Amino acid sequence: MSLLDLDLDKVTYFDLNNELNIPKDNAIQLGKDKEALAAFLKENVEPNTLQFSTLRERFDYLIAHDFIDPSLVEQYDFAFIEKVYAYLEGQDFHFKSFMAAYKFYAQYVLKTNDGAYYVERYIDRLAMNALFYGAGDETLAMNLADELVHQRYQPATPSFLNAGRSRRGELVSCFILQATDDMNAIGRVINSALQLSKIGGGVGINLANLREAGAPIKGIMGAASGVVPVMKLLEDAFSYSNQMGQRNGAGVAYLSVFHPDIMAFLGTKKENADEKVRVKTLSLGVTVPDKFYELARANADMYLFSPYDVEQEYGQPFNYIDITKEYDNLVANPAIHKKKIKARTLENELSKMQQESGYPYIINIDTANRANPVAGKIISSNLCSEILQVQKPSQITNEQRYASLGTDVSCNLGSTNIVNMMETDDFERSVDTMVRALTFVSDHSDLDIVPSVQNGNRQLHAIGLGAMGLHAMFAKNHMYYGDEEALDFTNAYFLMLNYYTLKASNKLARERQESFHDFEQSAYADGSYFDKYIQKDWEPKTDKVKALFADKGFPTQADWQALKAAVQRDGLYNAYRMAIAPTGSISYVNDSTASLHPIVNKVEERQEKKIGKIYYPAPYLSEDTITYYESAYNMDMRKVIDVYATAQEHVDQGMALTLFMRSTIPEGLYEWKDGHTNKMTTRDLNILRNYAFHRNVKSIYYVRTYTDDMEEFGVNECESCSI
After folding, report:
1. Residue 671 annotated to the active site
2. Where do the structural domains in the chain lie, given as residue ranges?
3. Which residues are in the Ribonucleotide reductase large subunit domain (predicted)?
4. 308 and which of 80, 211, 446, 493 could share a cystine (Cβ 3.0–4.6 Å)?
């Protein structure tokens, strides 16, 4: 028997899993999920996994059949590889849910070329990751094995999937590019999108430097076509470059709210848009300076500025102008062509589009730059809105070469599992191990197909360590999402993560005698970054959270003072260290709730291709915890924003914050709805976006809506960039 011969009508695990959705004696049949898991392993996994008499025989087979890279094995004495396996086997790992095992074997496991048999188990995939990212360092490899098997650390999907394989894609998750205002740059960015989409993750592209539709083109009889035709070209490029059909190409176009094409840009997502302008698969995002919120609040007129004119007047691309600071000067300058609209009209259009499609993502660009400790300017983000790094523009010659090479962004992601991290006996060692694994991805990524991305990666060594399972942590410890204890825990956990990633990066800089580019101009070098931690006591305030962190090495003000001195003396290797990406399928494998979000359902329903519905009970769901698992769709979104804002205080990049709305708002949820319609309106989203802005949230990823006929729309599981 093989997987190809498996008769899905005769297996029992789907039926057992489906009984989760059938209450018995007015209770969820949680035991049925354990039965489904046991049946899946017995009926699917065990009879269809290749068996070997020895570990050496297994590795010989994998190398002979071109499954793993021989150089991986050559880095170690084989006795050490046997030691790693003995340790992993000794930890007696077991999946905790049917969904965890099903997702791993459906999406992550290595199979024979014909797809008939599994070539590895979960333990084997962990061993490959530990050995690969250990890169010959036995101590690091063993530490990684420890973090992985206890599910404290989860590499991003491309890193986890490709580690050690001889036929592998890139390890990087996603990229950020920008186009400058000339045809050479547009051509180059389309080529870059093709190349990057071919090798791996999604691509974010900022188009705000491009002149608007109707703008004159010097020396040519005619006018510019604006950003929409470029969006169409990019959408076609992503559709074409789809990794041989393995996935759809994925990209997002960003535009400033002060760009004259902003209304046409948003209009490309309207269902009734003309096919000539409608974009179906390209995601949309907008960068929003503080000035927009000020103008909308005052119900004032708003001027949109010609990027070409602005660049001519200021000598730098539109993206690099501080709109908030220069707004009045821009308005007063007669040399700059401008268009006038009502700020509230645009604000309502943003909300209308988010209601209809979930787009656009919102990047509060001034908020991001105020908190940015690295010299330079953040101008854009990635496909999931959590990566926020400085970029520099490039200049492209007629030969499509670089007259001056700027910097663009590649994203190296991984995630802590919060519940399991709180069980570690050495928080510092755990984080240090994760930082080293992520840094390996940065150091060994060869991205010469897009030199600006290669240049940015080599200069900044940027990584993005995140987190998942926050709601599970709350429920397990009897905290309600967004309450005082929950916020106290969130603050403490992300402060710890910040402190120990800084300490790990400082240690790398000391070992390698190297800091990231322009470290001397950063807020780390002058010490100002650390002042808020030194001048204030950040200790947990509630008794429950104090107890949780009592033995975790929570840093004191004196610890921060010592770290400040060490960083000023020896530097930091990584310009960026943290980012909260969305967690997709891999959160199921980790038996975790997704990212920092509240759950959607106590028993989640997933529609799987060719299989039907699969049900997943929330982690640690029991009579003891069920009260603490409130659905995101029944929750005041200000609680979610409060949680993210609390974490954002300590996260140097961004977070993929999703808003969960109902088309009919539950009574009493929002005080401004009292006496008004209970239907979701643009005003609701306007208020929530403004609340997030005032809480210093850097980005809003997506708006998901649950309709009256019990359907979700606006759901966007980003497979390219998610952990």
Report:
1. no
2. 174-409
3. 560-582
4. 211
